[in-house]
Amino acid sequence: MENFKPPSSLNLSEDVAENWKLFKQRFQIFLEATEYTKKSGSVQVAMLLNTIGDDGLQLFNTFNLSNEDRKDIGKVLQCFEDHCIPRKNQVFNRYKFFNRNQAEGESFDNFLTDLKKIAKICEFEKQEESLVRDKIILGIRDRGLQEALLREADINLEKASNLCRAAEVSKQQVKLMREGKGNELNINKLKIGHSKKGTNSGSSENGHNDNYQCKKCGKTHAIRACPAYGLKCNQCGRFNHFKVGCKQARATQVGRWRKADKKGVNELDFNNERDEPEQAWFTNELTVRSIKSGALSKSWTHAIMLDNRLSVDFKIDTGADINVLPYNYYKTYFSRFSLKETNSVLIAYGGTKIETFGIVKIPCKVSDSVETSISFVVAKVNAKPILGLSTAVDMNLVKRVNNVSNSLDNDNIFTKYKNVFLGLGKLPFNYKICLSENAVPTVKPARRYASCIKEKLQAALKTLEDQTIISKVTRPTDWVNDIIIVEKKNGSIRICLNPSQLNKVIKREHHVIPTMEELRTNLAGKKVFSVLDMKDGFHQIPLDDESSYLCTFATPFGRYKYNRLPFGLSSSPEIFQRELERIFGDLEGVQVYFDDLIIAAEDEVTHDKIFSKVMDKASQYNVKFNYSKIQYKVGKVMYLGLIFNEQGVRPDSKQLEAIAKMPNPVNKKELQRFLGLVNYFHSFIPKLSELTNSLRLLLRTNQDWQWTNRQQTAVDQIKLKLINITTLKHFNPKENIVIQTDASNHGIGCALLQNKRPVAFASRSLNNSEKNYSVLEKELLAIVFALNRFHQLVYGHNVLIETDHKPLISIFSKCIHKSTNRIQRLKLKVLKYQFTVKYLPGAQMVLADHLSRSFITENVNDDPDMSDIVHSLTLSEFLSIPDKNLMKIAEETKRDLTLTQVIENINQNWSKFNKKISSNSLLRFYKIREELYVNDDILMCDQKIVVPISLQNYLLSLAHGKAHLGIVKCKQRLRKTYYWPSISQDIEHFVKKCRLCEHYQKSCNNEPLLQHEIPKYPFHKIGIDIAEYAKRNYLIVVDYLSKWLEILPLNNKTITEIVSRLFPVFATHGMPKQIICDNVPFNSSQFRTFCNTHNIQLQFSSPYYAKSNGLAERGVGIAKLIIKKCNNVNEINEALLDYRATPVAGLDYSPSQILMSRLLNTNLPIKQELL
To answer: For residue 1143, is the peptide bond before it cis, meaning its omega torsion is within 30 degrees of 0?
Structure first.
């Protein structure tokens, strides 16, 4: 037995049926090999249970078998068979089969084998062969072969397989034949070396044998006979090639010739290995990588006089080390010059050699001052002569430039004003943030991040701290804001402050923004413009000390505060405008609009004077500009949707192209949509009914669709009228700004309105990635597009955005972590804008709706920011739940049929939900769909976890706890963190079914007691009493304010014992000011002396009327219930922990929250912010 390996344990996850079949086969082979088949059934069963593993053994224990059957190997195997075979995931196997396509570079035989293997476990039975045949035809990559197979009649699997194999083999043969052709005159390689006598050169000029030219060693040899195999390269240190075939060497010494004619040299690679000391110019290989037809007229050529009699056009290549002259040129014009013998050869693609004739030296003349002799390699090629780098430099045709100046004019702005463009600016004014009187501070906890992100975060914080933008905070602060970390595609991170709560209470100054009339006065009619962009924007304005602490944020490395004005504050844009106007506002010809500074002048002289003053002011006040974004001395500038130039002011064509390029209607439905757009502006278009008369005729019921010149003329005139309306209405920053946005399946559109008149339009098509977005994401993308397109118009202003997609309102009201990653990235793009989203029914959204469906078709690249990773708050951060429990909830959620359907509808934005055919459980979730979202594969409702049905009883038992809490308190505990539709009814049912609670339930309830005066603080007034249960005495202490309960075991009822138990309580919570107690035994002189010594007032309850100390008596009752239900002191303490963490009846706070301002951590997982 020791010589045979037993089978591996049975895996009862994933495809259980296949795992069981394989295990059973291995087990039977093992029994045969070890001759255990000859032994009794009980021994074989024991061997099976010994090898099947822990999961299999636990499964065996669940089988309902008699003692006799447990010894029968056949019946035991049958039980396993019955359990495992139904678990085969046939649907998933068929999904894999129908989605299996031939991969790029995959051979057909490998594709066919994999298909057959998957088909075997799909149980297609008689249809298996036909389905495999169909999948071959549908899944192969060769579209031409696919068409050929579809043309075949009565094709079966064997015939389809043979045709695919034949096509694959024939392609390979054709490729080899093409590579072996040697009669083309295209140059692939020029190999210059010293051939040895008798050396086998490999391929001949008119054919080739089994040898080939090896790229690894540079020699010609048979297949798999490379001498470089196993040897180390002297160039790169890697194995299996020589230096002559090293790709690294070629990459650094390569020069190319491109764009020659079809039979010419298209690309030449030079690999200089100067292993031959007698030839300093020795070139080992000259390779043509690609051969394409190209236009010679686009090449860099220069005419050179050869032999003082013939002008020849040479192609100049700065990467070439030698010069090449075609043989036909030499024979026709320069044969009188002798050739110097050379061993150079040309090798065509595929290994065929082309003859070279030697080296010739010819006198050349470029100009009267440049005359020399040039050496050429003469080759039998039909191509333009080539001039190499060294020759071109010697003849002054190429000049090396070591430095390229970025100066924008002759004065070199960057050099002259270097201090204005380098470093971080700091204005000499401090900004003080003013808050409203009713502002309530908010503290956001520090988030947890992965270790790799923490390292990058620490480095980013260090960089900001070195720039004095932020600094460490060591003192307590009332405000702690949230931050969001965005990880870019290149691995770098960006820290974004999210002061959403702070923004709600900031008092804005509402600084006056320049109007359109002021801009027109300053900019219109000017001839020379310059635009300067502020570097690092708001960070140039320092905050005063008090305001900087308002911008505190928490990180895993401690708290930091912003010393400069941060991005994201609602007041930042207008403060920035105010401070820049203070500096540059008195300069004539200068206009400041937020982070842009515009200079406009009548001529260059005036412009240069103004520009010089701006630079001096910037230097004086330490203002920094972004050098890479300067527009210097331009003839026109686009601002606020208008173009200003010498001719005056005109609208930006981009704001109107959405109307001008709107496609014509092609059916009645699109025509109705177009007329709806037109009617929206009926009050601004005179004689509109006459213009639309010919269009309305097409909408008649019996009218056929015929688009004629008459309709086309009407549409063109209407578009012109709409554009003229827009040009008549200029943007006014003082008026309310409204943006309508809408999205369709293939496009997005938006319009900016003021006083219901259009200012600008915009639309675009969706790219392939965006078409896969959900409806909610497309509508949100339309808002992002609109704000970015109209940035110069809306930045720094309050904007009302109208949308016909109501869920967007709740999206912007939620915290960012409660959204999908894509929505988080989109929301980050609009953090810098102040806007409100308003729902408008689709019937009233005719303008944006039409633009989104009649969009401008254009190529839209994927937004690189959409690949960023937003490290926002996760479940494990705001819920104190272990990761294993979260994983368990996620797994059970996937198994829950109802929750799976809910998540699917959320992903589809409930667009395919049908109320009529949906279950009641699904309808309950539909009613609260606005509060539902998915986070880490767990369904959430608001900030609560939606519990799968399989885990509900487990959570109910945890909430009921060792203290056997009642219905109200169980509801208060569970509903803080968890949710399911019938949670209240289930709690009531669970508590009522508890036998222990039913046994000790009171038969009747007492009348409510008279209320005591409310204490000023915890442990100001306490009640004490003695409880007796099971011949044990306990001292009960209850705080009147927090309802904190202490159960202290007593050895006896003496005052000495009572005082010794009270002292540890008072040492923890402080001495009370008043104690409510019974006369006996607390009215003794010893206890009175103790209270007088510590300034404690004693108040005794009425004799024979314990209700006057109602809270203490209630504490005794609660304590006795806890003691009765517990077996020992440890269980009593655990029950006290549950009681102290449970909200007090009638309040939302537990005793621990009232006493210590936090919840205690118990076995029931809760939100971290409550701890």
So the answer is: no
Question: Do residues 926 and 853 both lie within one domain?
Answer: no
Task: Give the number of other Cβ atoms within 10 Å of residue 582's Cβ.
Answer: 13
CA distances from 777 to 157, 468, 819, 835, 858 (A): 45, 38, 11, 18, 20
What does DSSP assign to residue 697?
A: G
Which tokens hold the place of 1052? 């006896």
Cβ atoms of residues 551 and 560 within 8 Å? no
Same domain flag for 586 and 564: yes
Q: How many residues does the chain have?
A: 1171
What is the structure's pLDDT at 36?
81
The first and second tokens of residue 822, run together, are: 């894509």
Q: Any residues with CB less than 8 A from the CB of 649 and at least 6 apart, and which?
A: 520, 523, 524, 642, 643
Q: Are 739 and 800 in contact (CB under 8 A)?
A: yes
Task: Lay out the sheet containing 470-473: strands in order across.
Answer: 470-473, 558-562, 552-555
Answering whether pTM is above 0.70, one says no
Position 64 scores a pLDDT of: 84
Nearest one of 1151, 1119, 1162 to 1044, comparing CA atoms: 1151
Residue ending a domain, choose from 699, 726, 753: 726
Local confidence band at 266 (pLDDT 50, 70, 90 cut-offs)? very low
> Which stretches does DSSP call E strand in 277-414?
285-287, 301-306, 310-316, 324-326, 345-347, 353-365, 371-379, 386-387
Is the confidence at residue 519, as pLDDT, over 80? no
CA distance 910 to 757: 35
Tens digits of residue pLDDT in 196-219: 334 343 434 444 445 667 877 777
Say if residues 581 and 592 touch (Cβ distance below 8 Å).
Answer: yes
Of 64, 48, 56, residue with least CA distance to 84 = 56
Q: Are residues 638 and 656 in the same domain?
A: no
CATH code, domain with 490: 3.10.10.10
Is there a single domain that holds both residue 638 and residue 653?
no
- The three-state secondary structure class of 658 is helix
Are residues 377 and 434 part of one domain? no
Contact (CB, 8 A) for 782 and 790? no
**CA-CA-CA-CA dihedral for 1024, 1029, 1033, 1036, to nearest 10:** -20
Give the H or E element holding residue 82: helix 73-84
Same-domain check for residues 890 and 963: yes
Question: 841 lies in which domain range?
Answer: 730-873
DSSP class of residue 929 equals G
Give how far Cα 259 sits from Cα of 291, 370, 388, Å.
Answer: 9, 28, 16
* Closest residue by Cα to residue 550 from 535, 565, 538: 565
Give the distance from CA 752 to its chain's centroid. 29
Domain count, the chain: 8
Whether residues 618 and 479 fall in one domain = yes
Question: Which 3 state secondary structure label does DSSP give 1023?
Answer: strand
∠ Cα 619 624 628 (to 5°)? 125
pLDDT digits (tens, 9 = 90+) for 322-342: 788 888 888 888 888 888 887
How many other C-beta atoms are found inside a 10 Å radius of the C-beta of residue 888? 16
* Strand, helix or coil for residue 809: helix
For residue 563, what pLDDT band results from cuts at 50, 70 and 90? very high
Q: How confident is the model at residue 817 (pLDDT cuts 50, 70, 90)?
A: low
**Residue that wins the pLDDT comparison between 764 and 178:** 764
CA 656/CA 615 separation, integer angstroms: 36
Q: Identify the weakest region by mean pLDDT among 249-253, 1058-1062, 1071-1075.
A: 249-253
Inter-residue contact 777 to 823 (CB < 8 Å)? yes
- Give per-residue burial for 935-964: e unless 16+ CB within 10 Å, then b: beebbbbebbbbbbbebbeebbebbbbbbb
8 Å CB contact between 692 and 718:
yes
